[in-house]
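User: Continuing from earlier, I have the next pair ready.

Assistant: Great, send them over.

User: Here they are, in order.

Assistant: Folding the first of the pair now:
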Amino acid sequence: MKKTYRTSEGKIAGQLVNDVYQKVVSRQKHLMKMFNGYGIDAEIFKDLKENGCREIRITEVDTGDTYTCPIETFDEKKIVKNFQGVQYFISGKYLNHAR
């Protein structure tokens, strides 16, 4: 199964491939410095859970680094913020460095 998620502006936010949500970001642009982590739109997150997602995988295009987090951990440790819509953020301390 492959499902593409888009932002309200129509840009690709990420893709659910089988049970892994893959998100490609620019560290310089998307890293939430106050949490040293990354966010996912609340509605996308809800849909990921409903569609059997088991892992979040974030790849930084500017560093080539990839980070993973089980969706259960993301859900338990998420920080909720409303920046033009509700988003869930995960602190970098809960992200596993894969590369």
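And the other member of the pair:
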Amino acid sequence: MQGSSLYVGNLSYSVTVEQLRQLFSDYGEVKDVRIVPNRDFGFVDMSSPSEAEAAKTALNGSEFEGRTLRVDEARPPRSERRGSYRRY
């Protein structure tokens, strides 16, 4: 894994930032947690790529608050991806 930012999908709408922080803290230092409002996903930033990899391996496919989590390395925003362009 190159980065230390994780995409966390299939979240229950009732999950809080603090619940995610606590869940991921078992795998290292959590730098930041963001849940996208009114969506079922968010992002967790770990302090190192190795900690992010450990969290991804342990939590991807696990059940949390009645839902099966999807955890993967976060991709950069579209505007920062190589070769991206804007349609006007």
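Worth noting for the second one:
The longest strand covers residues 30-35. Residues 30 and 46 are 5 Å apart (CA to CA).
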